[in-house]
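From the pipeline queue, job 12 of 40. The input is one protein chain; the requested action is below.

Action: predict structure.
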Amino acid sequence: MKTAVKPSNPVPATAASNHYFRFHLPHLHLGSVFGDDWFSLKAEAFARFFGTPIFLVTQTVIVAIWIGLNAFGYTKFDVYPFILLNLAFSLQAAYAAPLILLAQTRQADRDKAHADADAQHREALALASEQRQALAAQQTGQLLDLLQQNTQLTELVKELSQRIEALTLDLQTKIGQGGTKA
């Protein structure tokens, strides 16, 4: 079972969601082709419904019942060649085609806005990556300088320790010689 890793600098949920969509903000001014009122939303939903299996199956069943009732003589409101059915299909096509085209245009606008936002996000990520690389290179240089200074200090401490040891030996020698003379 995986455990979630918490970020070291957690961002509040509202700030994170606003931050995530920050590249979408410049595209908010784009008005949709349908508009944003109830009619436009219903029109787009209706246009989207035309491509669903429920619509296709329902239409097929209705057409089969229509033809069956007229072909077998149960009713005679639209006898063969089914002119009224043809008129219904023409009317449906006359309304469906523009709605579908408008829905596609609206989706294309959304896709373009999202693609623009994604491109800006990728650019921001690339810039942030370059900045991190430059900072890492700078810190690496500083670390190498510190290591060099540490090496120099270590050599200086070694040299001073050797001088102290030599002076201590010299002093002990002089004290030892002076003590034997007295």
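Job complete. DSSP finds four helices and no strands in the chain.
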